[in-house]
Amino acid sequence: MQLFIIAYTELGLPQSIVNAKVKDIIQNCAITQNVQIVVVGQGFSNEFISFCNDFEQVVIKSSNTITELKNPKAPASIIHFGATIKAPKSLPQYFIPLFNPNQIKGLSFLKRYFVKKRYQKWIQNANKVLCTNDWAYNSLKLNQPKFSALFTPICLPTVKVKSFEWQELSAAKEALTDGNNYFLAFAPLERLTTILKEFSIFKKWQQTTMHLVFIFDTQQEVEAALLLLKGYRFREAVSIHSADKVSLEWIAATYAIIWEGVDFSKTVWMDYAIQYDIPILLDSQNEIPATWLKAGEVFSFSEKQALSNHFKLYYKDEVYRQARARMGKDWLTKLNEARTNLAVFNNIVLSHNK
Q: Are residues 206 and 328 in the same domain?
């Protein structure tokens, strides 16, 4: 059979997040020798192309030229992450949502309405909506309750992260922060000023070269943040980037990661951070499922000096920092053990046309 993976999304997610899930699918399907995997998209990184080329049953087709979807040569299924597909209705389609449309920022009411309608259409057209973790599953049930019968939690183990030599991480750090250690922060734009104030307290306490690297979802948010940064006393120690720039090296080289106002679209990066022994700090105001509370240290970022105290603690106490990283590692191990009882991706998608 053929499995078509539509390796892009109309929802504006960073391509690296989509690529990560495509890799997971390829790895899981690779044990099935009678399936040809057709990855549909364009503009892929050399690293992603190299990964695909390691599997003889995987081919990459440009989304501009592919014709097999209209008339497949063998029994086929389609996986997508939020894309409108022109294909026969007889082909089973599986939708893997990678984020909640309610989290989209910067849209007018009308545009948000149409995005939500399109999202619901993808759900309705899917044979099943596959949720790769319980954070996604809980969020979908909460926000799309009338379609809950279509939501299926599945076991799709994450590809093991690439190992880096210290020279590679040093080079990434040099390019990002002039070689200085740094905290990585995923946070809403409206929280920028407050976090900067907390970082100022930390810098005054410690007189350190530690940097703070903010990651925002869009380039528009980056530009707005850069304007807010003007006049900040420690602006030379702050970097601001968009999510589509995030690399594995940035995650692996960081000191700790702050997660505030995030949804399940970023969970793949949380998984990667834990694999790299990076501790994660989670705002208690995030909609975190109970099963994720041990993934990192959870506290209220809104409490005065809570963040600055944690900056100081993680900076001064390496034993504490490593213990928190181990806590995340233990949590991930137990989570993966518990997920063995879930439906297996291959049994759902690859068995449909047998």
A: yes
Q: Are 128 and 24 in contact (CB under 8 A)?
A: no
Cα dist. 139→113, 132, 142, 280, 349 in Å? 18, 12, 5, 21, 23
Residues 199 and 249 in one domain: yes
Q: Is the dihedral of CA 28, 29, 33, 38 positive or negative?
A: negative
- pTM for the full model? 0.90
What is the C-alpha to C-alpha distance for residues 293 and 63, in angstroms, rounded to an integer?
39
Q: Within this chain, do residues 181 and 150 fall inside the same structural domain, yes or no? A: no
- Given the DSSP bridges, would you call strands 297-299 and 343-344 parallel, antiparallel or unpaired? unpaired
pLDDT category at 50 given cuts 50, 70, 90 is very high
**Structural domain contains residue 45:** yes
CATH of residue 247's domain is 3.40.50.2000
Rg, the chain, Cα only: 21
Q: Of 238, 119, 143, whose CA–CA distance to 187 is shortest? A: 238
The answer to the question of residue 343 being in a domain is: no
Taking 70 as the threshold, does the pLDDT of residue 69 lie above it?
Answer: no
Give how many domains the chain has, as a whole number. 2
Domain of 134 in residue numbering reads as 2-156
Are 115 and 84 spatial neighbours (Cβ–Cβ below 8 Å)?
no
**Are 81 and 151 in a shared domain?**
yes
Predicted local distance difference test score (pLDDT) of residue 130: 94
Task: Determine how many CB atoms are found less than 10 A away from the CB of residue 38.
Answer: 21
pLDDT in tens, 2-44: 899 999 998 878 899 999 999 999 988 877 778 889 999 988 9
Residue 230 lies in a domain: yes
Model confidence at 251, pLDDT cuts 50, 70, 90, reads very high
pLDDT of residue 159: 81
Quote the CA–CA distance of 168 and 15 in Å, as a whole number.
22
Residues 13, 133 within the same domain: yes
pLDDT range class, residue 270, cuts 50, 70, 90: very high
CB-CB neighbours of 36 under 10 Å: 17
Judge if 192 and 138 occupy the same domain: no
